[in-house]
Amino acid sequence: MGVCLSARIKAESPCTTGANSKYVSTDGNDFSSTSSKVSSFSVPQTPRSEGEILQATNVKSFSFAELKTSTRNFRPDSVLGEGGFGSVFKGWIDENTFAAAKPGTGIIIAVKRLNQESFQGHKEWLAEVNYLGQLSHPHLVKLIGYCLEDEHRLLVYEFMPRGSLENHLFRRGSYFQPLSWSLRLKVALGAAKGLAFLHSAETQVIYRDFKTSNILLDSSYNAKLSDFGLAKDGPTGDKSHVSTRVMGTYGYAAPEYLATGHLTTRSDVYSYGVVLLEMLSGRRAVDKNRPSGEHNLVEWAKPYLANKRKIFRILDNRLEGQYTMDGAYKAATLALRCLSMEAKFRPTMDEVVTALEQLQESNDTRVPQSNLSNGARVRRRSADDAHRGRIPAAYPRPSASPLYA
To answer: Which residues are annotated as a binding site for ATP?
Structure first.
């Protein structure tokens, strides 16, 4: 994973190192469980040894030789993505035994291989095993197994055919069509459910690095949270927060966390607000290529979010004709609440889920015929169309780097 050190509050300035390896393919079986069953395991709050963590997981321990065979010796043409952590390779395993399978047979997997020079790499590798090895939910990516052998550190995940939300929002080209309004609401709701599960009393995990590149999409555009390398146990007893070094990604971190290092579940809610705003606007959280005054999305958009007459200025023009103004206003208001400067005024993720469910179910999500015949431009082909037409997706690029203290 990328490393960026700066003075004082050490998450204030961006760096250029790639951060997360996200993956997608032109073919693509989805190693997603079709079961809606949700299970959770309370993650122990006390620090545990490496041996305790690995023994407590519900995933397979792979040998390096098995993963070498599965990925065809980590061939360059098997690379699905690259980042500061290392590279992600495409592999195949048997559906029943999980043994390495021939390319094109069995189940596709994504194998993340730790770069030996990766700063903090082993610690984050272990955190990933700790959380995803014990937690199971339809909106968390499935960790199938790991490899810890000599100097080798690898993680084996279910394959997510449609890659990251980041690519669908910000990449241009025939492979990544603009996500429709309805699909954006679906992804927003799925990601919110994943965070709400992590914040539940039984789990109490603070994700700490919620961003578009860490939201992966399966073949049906169901959102799943990935990359738990920065996750932390929530506060216990009468503690109101967790004190920690400032770590995360520039543009997404909550202001009180940047200023004090005090981490709470409401820190994740702020990050969620940034992502929701990215989905509404089609703009990145930080974009130095924008005109002066528009580099920081939150600072630029906030004045428009609370004004029903002005929110059209921040909405992605590729969505024109797909929403009602009431629906857009409700979504914008929700984003604004999540982005409150004071953590106590932000909603909980359970409240966010409820609001999005109501928005999705309401008539606000339907496009009145009058909207379509009122001179609105005909929209470009959306991801809905791409899904129906089975337009293949291209490999994603690494996202912006996390900023470490």
So the answer is: 112
Please give the Cα distance from 13 to 15 (Å, whole number).
7
Are 343 and 235 in the same domain? yes
Q: Which of 59, 57, 124 is nearest to 86 (CA)?
A: 124
DSSP code of residue 297:
H
Closest alpha carbon to 295 in 329, 244, 251, 337: 251
DSSP for residue 78:
G
Instruction: Examine the residue annotation and report whether 209 is marked as an active-site residue of this protein.
Output: yes
Question: Among the options 27, 30, 150, 209, which is catalytic?
Answer: 209
Residue 388 burial (CB < 10 Å; 0-12/13-18/19+)? Answer: exposed
3-state SS class at 277? helix
Mark residue 15 as left, alpha or beta (left: phi above 0; alpha: psi -120 to 50; beta: remaining). Answer: beta
Same domain, 266 and 135: no
Whether 359 has a pLDDT exceeding 80, the answer reads: yes
Q: Which of 129, 145, 160 is the last residue of a domain?
A: 160
Binding residues, by number, are 112
Distance CA 10, CA 22 (A): 25
Question: What's the domain count of the chain?
Answer: 2
Flag whether pLDDT at 33 surpasses 50: no
Provide the residue range defining the domain that includes 61.
Answer: 1-160
Instruction: Tell me the pLDDT tens digit for each residue of 374-395.
Output: 333 333 444 444 444 333 333 3
